[in-house]
TrEMBL record:
Pfam families to which the protein is assigned, alphabetical: Peptidase_M17, Peptidase_M17_N_1
Listed GO biological process terms: proteolysis
Protein name from the UniProt record: Leucyl aminopeptidase family protein
Family: Belongs to the peptidase M17 family.
Domain of life the protein comes from: Bacteria
Keywords linked to the UniProt accession: Aminopeptidase, Hydrolase, Manganese, Protease
Keyword Cell inner membrane: no
GO terms under cellular component: cytoplasm
Organism: Phreatobacter stygius
Annotated ranges, domain Cytosol aminopeptidase: 308-315
Molecular-function GO term, any one: manganese ion binding
InterPro entries: Leucine_aapep/pepB (IPR011356), Macro_dom-like (IPR043472), Peptidase_M17_C (IPR000819), Peptidase_M17_N_1 (IPR048816)
Length: 461
């Protein structure tokens, strides 16, 4: 169990009541005259996110009131309970009245206290929570662990997290769960017919690689996860600006999401044959860097003209997708911090997903809403694929015209998925730019918890 959680039924916890103006009137009967006077004196209004810490006769904390939106509110923040820990003194707490979804609220309560402490000592108070009745403590812990794992990976700067270190993180996870790991490194990528992964990573002194983890019974349905592992992206010869490069340690956020989800699947012992593929590279600049106008083969046999070296994520993914597709998994998902266009369209908090499988897309959007891991489906609009045409190769890695960049990137990837019937691409941001309930500024685990819900439902134990 997570160290900030205590088993259901633990005694001595301070009760937290989730209140609206209507429910506070009803709850008032359970308050002492002194507590009612305290609320009146402090002017507490049960607005969303507001906290009242009520004292007992001796001045110790007796109870907590937490303002929330009404259940039918149009724009409810599903992670609002993440505002609680920062406003509470250290201690042990329990949910007394409400919330409407105790598991989601407990997740927000704990993940709000995440701190990245690798380089700077994080001063944290222990705001502990009793696992709400009816909530699976083990599943809750697994989701929290996956979130912290992904955040840690994204937050680690590139000098300490290159392709080799990303592989080491995968191997550490594999050792924990009894999975097998195989990697193909450097020039061996060419021998293994993975030329695009090699091309993107060949300029760096840190060897590119494909890390391949497998776990589970080979007779179980195959579920394959692919994560973009660009550990730092200079943009290559089409170099980024200084501000554009500043957050590029997070360009392996797709790999972090896939790794986090892999942890959840293995920890839950889901009856699937899991495969995790992470093309791990650094898109650097040197005399060996690939150039705009170069043409490379791909594993699928399609030739690709390089229209822009800063559109490298789809290049490493296309070889990994082609390799995974040969295995014909029952479900395949890729995660990638792929386009700025996705952020322009939907912002940092709402990643677009793309799939030909209508049921999969609908299930993912619904699951994302339930677990506060929101997703939004955008179309694989085939007429836009014409923008990827090249005069000298089978296709270009960027589209002409400058419009619909996230869609055309997804259409590029779509060319490398043929045999897999159920595939989804998530164009995530993997970063929280401004503090939100349950989400500190920094790396974030996006799309993984929603997909876990779908996988768990499709392949039940």
């Amino acid at each position: 169990m997570h160290p900030l959680l205590k088993p259901a039924g633990t005694t001595g916890a301070i009760p937290i009541s989730f209140v609206t103006p209507v429910s506070l009137d009803a709850a008032g009967a359970g308050l002492s005259p002194a507590q009612r006077a305290y609320l009146a004196a402090t002017g507490f209004e049960p607005k969303p996110g507001k906290v009242a810490v009520l004292p007992d006769a001796d001045g110790a904390v007796a109870a907590v009131l937490f303002g929330v939106e009404a259940e039918d509110a149009r724009h409810r923040d599903l992670m609002l309970a993440g505002k609680l820990p920062g406003q509470l003194p250290a201690g042990l707490y329990r949910f007394a009245d409400g919330p409407d979804d105790p598991e989601r609220a407990a997740f927000a309560f704990v993940t709000a206290q995440y701190r990245f402490g690798r380089y700077k000592t994080a001063t944290a108070k222990d705001v502990l929570l009793v696992v709400p009745e009816g909530v699976d403590a083990e599943a809750l812990t697994q989701a929290i662990e996956a979130t912290s794992l992904a955040r840690d990976l994204v937050n680690t700067p590139a000098n300490d997290l290159g392709p080799a270190e990303l592989e080491a993180a995968i191997r550490e996870l594999a050792g924990r769960h009894g999975a097998d790991v195989y990697s193909i490194i450097g020039p061996d990528l060419l021998e293994a017919d993975l030329p695009m992964i090699h091309a993107v990573g060949m300029a760096s002194a840190r060897s590119p690689r494909l890390v391949d983890l497998t776990w589970g019974d080979p007779d179980h349905p195959k579920v394959t996860l692919i994560g973009k592992g660009v550990c730092f992206d200079t943009g290559g010869l089409d170099i980024k600006s200084d501000t554009g490069m500043l957050l590029m340690k997070k360009d392996m956020g797709g790999a972090a999401a896939a790794i986090g989800l892999a942890h959840m699947i293995m920890a839950a012992r889901l009856p699937v044959r899991l495969r995790l593929l992470v093309p791990a590279v650094e898109n650097s600049i040197s005399g060996q860097a690939f150039r705009p106008g170069d043409v490379f083969p791909t594993r699928k046999g399609l030739s690709v003209e390089i229209g822009n070296t800063d559109a490298e994520g789809r290049l490493v993914l296309c070889d990994a997708l082609a390799l995974a597709d040969e295995d014909e998994p029952a479900l395949m998902a890729d995660f990638a911090t792929l386009t700025g266009a996705a952020r322009v369209a939907l912002g940092p908090d709402l990643p677009p997903i793309y799939s030909h499988d209508d049921a999969l897309a609908a299930d993912l959007v619904a699951a994302g809403e339930r677990v506060a891991d929101p997703l939004w489906r955008l179309p694989l609009w085939s007429p836009y694929a014409a923008g990827l045409e090249s005069r000298i190769a089978d296709l270009n890695n960027v589209a002409t015209g400058g419009f619909a960049g996230s869609i055309t990137a997804a259409l590029y990837l779509d060319r490398f998925v043929e045999k897999t019937k159920s595939w989804v691409h998530a164009d995530i941001y993997a970063w929280v730019p401004a503090e939100k309930p349950g989400r500190p500024v920094g790396g974030e685990f996006q799309a993984g918890r929603a997909l876990f819900e779908v996988i768990k439902a499709r392949f039940p134990r």
